[in-house]
Amino acid sequence: MNEHDHQIGLHGLALLRAGVKGDALGVHRHRSAITDLLNDPSDATSRVLPEVSVQEGYAAWATSYDERRNASIRAEEPVVRELLQGRTPGVAVDVGTGTGRHATWLAAQGHRVTGIDTSRAMLEVARSRAPELEWIEADLRALPLPDACADIVVCGLTLSHLPTLVGIAELARLLRPGGRLVVSNPHPLATDVLHARAWTTTADGIRVQVPEWAHGLGEYVARFVAAGLVPTVLQEPPHDGEDPMLQGMPAAVVWAADRPEA
Q1: pLDDT of amino acid 45
Q2: What CATH fold (topology level) applies to the domain 54-258?
Q3: pTM score, two decimals?
Q4: Most C-beta atoms within 10 A of its C-beta, which of 74, 116, 222, 225?
Q5: Domain ranges in the chain with CATH number 3.40.50.150
Q6: 18: confidence class by pLDDT, cuts 50, 70, 90
């Protein structure tokens, strides 16, 4: 699919939503946009970007990651913090910490925090922001921490880079009785239907994407239960309206799952 076709598809989806809501102005606007696009197919740039590994992609992205507006972050960050606000200060582990946005917030809430990521470049940025915290380079499927060591485990916008949710078992392993796991990912609608991907630009100016997979809501539940956790909260925060065609559509999925008290 090229950019031209993608824009037609987005306007078509927005047209359906406007029609269901009885938004006559929206119907007219999106119908007109589709007509204009059909009459002028000049922008036919491919949307299929070259794919690079997670390591390579985030190494290129690290220094600009905090500067670029990110729809998934804008959607999930307030929800993640709401689900952790007011928790008794304890030990927190932020897996897939990136540049440390959740880790530094947890530290400000009084928690003793360890941030873990597979990208050395992202960790270098995190370490420069908060050198007093512990930062570990590791794969989330083999975390170098003991069982039941944490009161809070966070994994933000990371599990979508794996074909399955097998990593949930490893995240759950770290939780003490009474502990809480909070997981966020791009919404499967965005990943699967809209083909949204984490993307960046390399040093030589080439736009590339990092592989991502959509995970169904039922798979999360099955993985939580298999790991001995009780899923307690599911939120699907919407796009914030910066892109009118996506306004109101879910941008992210955010779960809280708790380890029952012994």
Answers
A1: 46
A2: Rossmann fold (3.40.50)
A3: 0.82
A4: 116
A5: 54-258
A6: low
